[in-house]
Design brief:
mainly alpha; Serine Threonine Protein Phosphatase 5, Tetratricopeptide repeat; globular
Length: 191
């Protein structure tokens, strides 16, 4: 079925407005998260940034080197703080590098997959973003936020069926909280 130019223009406008709305919603979450990390590398105030004990120098050696103009970062709490700061300042390339490094320290942290997926999407690497988000879903299929992000990114890719499935899952996990309400709104706005 061939659609008129008016239809496609309205779809483009919808996608841009929808994307900006989701960006505004998710950006605030990530900015808030960066305030929850303590300056003491042992104390972490929010469970989403809990790292396994016993991280050694051997683990640090597995990290890919940062660009020459970037200061050395010692541990996962500092990497997390820096990554969230880069994300908040829309320095997505640097944030993505650091989120990838966080996965070396703790490959089962669904929040890192979520953050990396969203960051890759903002870098225009949407197919890679969907792959990372799906990896995160495999790590913790009960995490509502990653389903919301997966739905958003799929909708931006134009994969309405996958977007609908992910957003429906997010709503079913809790329609009365902020994430569920965001997912329900996105679901209603899908074509």
């Amino acid at each position: 079925m061939i659609r008129s130019p008016k239809f496609w223009i309205s779809m483009v406008v919808f996608q841009v407005v929808f994307g900006l709305a989701v960006f505004a919603i998710t950006r605030q979450h990530y900015i808030d998260d960066s305030d929850n990390v303590s300056a003491d590398p042992v104390i972490v105030r929010q469970p989403s940034f809990s790292w396994p004990g016993g991280i050694t120098g051997f683990d640090s050696a597995q990290l890919r080197p940062l660009p020459f103009d970037h200061p050395t970062i010692e541990g996962p709490v500092e990497i997390s703080r820096q990554a969230n700061e880069f994300f908040a300042n829309q320095q997505y390339s640097r944030a993505a590098q650091l989120y990838e490094q966080l996965l070396v320290f703790y490959p089962d942290n669904v929040n890192t997959y979520n953050n990396l997926g969203l960051t890759l999407h903002y870098l225009g690497r949407t197919t890679e973003a969907v792959r990372k988000l799906n990896e995160g879903v495999a790590v913790d299929p009960a995490d509502q936020r990653i389903w919301l992000t997966l739905g958003f990114v799929n909708s931006q890719l134009g994969d309405t069926d996958q977007a609908r499935a992910a957003l429906t899952t997010a709503v079913e996990m809790g329609a009365n909280n902020k994430l569920g309400q965001s997912a329900a709104t996105m679901l209603e706005n899908l074509p």
